[in-house]
């Protein structure tokens, strides 16, 4: 799977599942490192529109389903406004 700017991903950590203690967590990719090893992300809602200012770096190898990974929810979309 190719990680692209604008995609929305869901955290697969069991604490953020419907049966877990916390609400589901979603992130949106805002940029990719020059070497292509890291995705820089911001928290968002499932629709990708609600954001926070805090940017976090995640190893792209974690961008796959699994207990410590992420699941793709939405491909990049031209309808989503860019981050400022």
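Sequence proposed for the structure above (84 residues):
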């Amino acid at each position: 799977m190719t990680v692209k700017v604008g995609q929305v991903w869901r955290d697969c950590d069991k604490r953020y599942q419907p049966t877990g203690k916390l609400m589901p967590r979603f992130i949106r990719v805002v940029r990719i490192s020059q070497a292509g090893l890291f995705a820089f992300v911001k928290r968002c809602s499932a629709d990708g529109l609600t954001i926070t200012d805090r940017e976090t770096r995640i190893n792209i190898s974690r961008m796959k389903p699994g207990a410590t990974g992420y699941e793709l929810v939405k491909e990049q979309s031209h309808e989503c406004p860019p981050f400022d």
